[in-house]
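[User]
Um, tokens okay?
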Amino acid sequence: MAKSVLLRMILARSNGFKEEKRMRTMLFAVLVSALTLGSVIGVAAAEDSCRSKAIGKDGKPLAGAALSSFMTKCVRDACEPRAIDKNGKALSGAAKDSFMKKCQKEA
């Protein structure tokens, strides 16, 4: 009888650990999804902002090479202030180039 009680306690405890591990896995997946979605929404908002500003001097929307040039400059200008390291200093050199390339590709 004592063995069966002990066995039940061990099984109950192991099921609790499985449940806890499952909950941690789900929480991690939700956090990763939220962070990814947040960055995608931010990039999409920046691109929409640039596209809405793409208007020529005559009030008409830009097209062709003018639109392409404007979008490149606008996205670069949007990424430039975010090019900082973990200590708050501006990136430079290869680190800045890599960050800007990644940021512009996302935008």
In short: Residues 2-106 form one domain. The chain has a mean pLDDT of 77.
